[in-house]
Amino acid sequence: MPPTNAYVLMRGTFGEDDLHFISANNEPDYLPSVLNDGRIVYTRWEYTDKPLWRAQSLWTVNPDGTQANTLWGNQSVWPDVLKDARAIPGSTRVMFTGSAHHNWFSGAIGIVDSDTGSNFPRGLAKVTRELAWPESGNGPQDPGESSAYRAYGKWDAYISPWPLSEKDFLVSIRRNGKFAIYLMDTDGNRELVYEGVNNIFHFMPLQPRPCPPVVADRVVLPSRAERLSPADGAIYSPDVHEGVPEKMKGKIKYLRVWYLEQKTYTYWDHRPALSTGPVVSGVQTDGVKRYLGEVPVHADGSVWFRAPSGLALHFQALDERHRALQTMRSFMNLQPGETRGCTGCHERTSVVSAAALPADRSAFRTPDAIKPAPWAPPDTRTGVAIGYKRDIVPIFQRRCYACHTGAGKGRATFDLTENGWRPYMLIVGWPGWGVRDKFPGWGASVVREDWPTIDPKAPPPGYDLAGTIKVENHAKTTAEAYATLEPMTRLSYNSRFVKMLSGETPHHGVKGTDEEVMKAILWVDAICPFLTDADIRAEKDPVFPGSDWLVLKPRLETAPRPVRPGPFSAHADPDTVVREYCFP
Tell me, what DSSP letter sits at residue 313? Predict the structure, then answer.
């Protein structure tokens, strides 16, 4: 079974042939509509350092692709999926369907108000209170929109609400196995509008209504000739310490910049957690990162730096040793020539900073350039990848193999013998959910039923040595899995592996070089990738049984490499588009 295709937001102009990416997402964007202020609201599906399931929330963006921001729910478990978002007339509030990751045709109706909160339960109100949020169930508290609400009957599911006022809306409701259109209000009163022979899922009222203002373009989108070398943008924060816990304040000295790759390669292997193709990491299936470099945090806490446009950018706050104090569990992107700001290393994106970018930037300073890794090739726009087999195994060979392989005494406590890369699993500490077939040699002792029950007082030797975020199983509760991480508790800042390699924790005289320590830090903070993009693309294209009739086949060696941002012809032959839009 092939994985889901990712349909990403684009912009076109009537009468013209070019389409432009206004999103840098690696997963789907869908169901956009226009807010009352002219911005676009849409559902964004993303997995950046978060578990697979509750990862589809509401975002906003300007029509030219600038200022993409979360509207509501990027760290929420309830509802599971927020879709069908539409602005309530004369209001800043948005009505939506709370649906399910696996069952698209189920849902309860809710309203979000980002002025009062951006994550559960703040800013959320449920209209159809008789139904739980599909798949995720009811939250610990689900504030209702109306205390007078009554269901007045048994209803199976709601989808596609179209608000007409603060109280009234049209909606498709399923009853007795079929969807029909109803006029409904937030108190639960409803009246059948239309019922057809088949299900009625979507509709559009034909009635004059106020036209939202046109948001003027802030940038000039690249021409066809400019698409392979688009202009950079710039990112500014007046104080990265704004909104962070007290223990982090004053400690952030650098900001690390990653680029999240688009995974265009796949095996089409649909075993648990592996449906997106070759396994990248033992603790998460997505979020393939390339290290772009670092920028300094200035004495006043500010950062201002140039960054490549069209890429999914992911940041981490670093201490003076370049170790991650905190990580961003999402991504942002820039359009060519766009300058945008961030409010510290924060949780909420709806908070306005007390400081702002000076109007006279020349009197301030020029933006910094991202400093790449010393071993990065010159003129690279997309940074360097790091992987266990390529970058970490050689460190073990030089520093650890003498004691922990062969006749070494260290084998009694921690065996690094290359038995089908089993040491990788031990270092990461993963319950083994279906991945033993991908890493040969992972025996029955490391499959999922054994690892979640590890005695924390007596774990196996080497277990969790890296100290990375175990994305799919690190949290004690589902809600914690999506919340802001407790800073300075995981990743390289608190990694036993990094501490031993750097000599901070004495271990039989082991001391890595500066480059080895930096590669270990990056590997841990990238969530311990096993393979790099180059490793995967070196494999031959898989042969998928019964795929001869498919236009899009599973590919590894010949998988396309996307270029963003940039236009392509909406009317060209699909094969031509792939060749035209992807560099070799």
Answer: E
